[in-house]
Amino acid sequence: MAQANILIIEDDAFHAKILQRFLSSLSSAHILVAQNGHEAVEALEHHCPDIIFCDLYMPDMDGVEFIRHFSKTNLSASLVLTSSVSDDVQESVMDMARSYGLDNISKLPKPISKADVAQVLRDHQSPAKHTMTMIENSEITAQEVRHALLRDEFEPFFQGHYCSKTQQLIGAEALVRWNHHSLGLLTPDKFLPAVFKGGLSYALSCKMLRASLENASSWHTLGHHIQISINVSPSDMEHPDFADKVIQALDHARFPANKLTLEVTEVEITHDLGRALDNMSRLRMRGVTISIDDFGTGYSSISQLINSPFSELKIDRLFISRMSESPKHFSALQCMINLGKSLGLKLVAEGVETRIQAKMMEKLGCDILQGFYYNKPMSSADFVERCMLGATANMVSESA
């Protein structure tokens, strides 16, 4: 490992010494040891760690408190939990850290082995570069988004949907990308904060709807009659003329309504349920599929799922990625699939990245799979080429 800075936060001198010895033998890093969260916070005033090994149960300031303090700094570092507390507590702390924007986090249960430390160093290796969090988002303003909408700089990229049983390509999800004039191709996490702040979600959704349907219509002309899925927010679904906009876009593109799926994200609260049900019911009568997206991570209640005219349930990638390491996530995944089946909903799993995950989701009864195991989001031209090469999944190698 290249020269780097490592911070160990551990109140037990024996465990700290063992970890320090392993790290010294595996890397040339500069290693600093703090006995509690307070000492670690003071150390951050003078040092910029690349990796932080953090115990959780400590006197004075515990690891949870330290993580909260660390999340407010402008530092970017890999965070590794080293603790003997129960797995469910560690999972909760990891979720807490992610909610604070600390995405590069893992755990290293005690007793610690040298092999485990070596693996952590491989996984968390990064250049000693520290950036302000949210810099990329702050560069984008609502005014820039307005101009980009006028200049048609937003375009749909497409990621395939595959039948879990046959592995055949049966659909695609449209995912918005921004061809920024100076920053290049931007993904939604870079500009959606500005979109929502400027009240431009509905305008962007309508533009994406038209562009996606036009692309999908051209695929149908070529003989590729696949389903197209488009994301909309609950606030879009509450808009008075949303159903009319969708119907007009379908008519303009000459695209069959029964080949369109609208994915309504679950991460927002529906404020005007009556208006949303109005639009959803009108669209369902036309044959449009309504899917509840990111299920299991938002605010929806079971009663809302039952009372709304959803015909598809899309399971959030969080449960797919963690089902093999967290019994709770696996149990929750099973419950969601059983619930969807009992309600007669089609089941979609997003974030499938390995063959093992694909096989497991098929075994559990999921109908449709999506993720990097099959392909990454791509431009319309590249997606057409994939379709023309054959509808059988051409998987990205798992080493990619």
Automatic annotation (TrEMBL):
<dbReference type="GO" id="GO:0071111">
    <property type="term" value="F:cyclic-guanylate-specific phosphodiesterase activity"/>
</dbReference>
<dbReference type="InterPro" id="IPR035919">
    <property type="entry name" value="EAL_sf"/>
</dbReference>
<feature type="domain" description="Response regulatory">
    <location>
        <begin position="5"/>
        <end position="125"/>
    </location>
</feature>
<dbReference type="GO" id="GO:0000160">
    <property type="term" value="P:phosphorelay signal transduction system"/>
</dbReference>
<dbReference type="Pfam" id="PF00072">
    <property type="entry name" value="Response_reg"/>
</dbReference>
<dbReference type="InterPro" id="IPR050706">
    <property type="entry name" value="Cyclic-di-GMP_PDE-like"/>
</dbReference>
<dbReference type="InterPro" id="IPR011006">
    <property type="entry name" value="CheY-like_superfamily"/>
</dbReference>
<feature type="domain" description="EAL">
    <location>
        <begin position="138"/>
        <end position="391"/>
    </location>
</feature>
<keyword id="KW-0597">Phosphoprotein</keyword>
<dbReference type="InterPro" id="IPR001789">
    <property type="entry name" value="Sig_transdc_resp-reg_receiver"/>
</dbReference>
<dbReference type="InterPro" id="IPR001633">
    <property type="entry name" value="EAL_dom"/>
</dbReference>
<feature type="modified residue" description="4-aspartylphosphate">
    <location>
        <position position="55"/>
    </location>
</feature>
<dbReference type="Pfam" id="PF00563">
    <property type="entry name" value="EAL"/>
</dbReference>
<protein>
    <submittedName>
        <fullName>EAL domain-containing protein</fullName>
    </submittedName>
</protein>
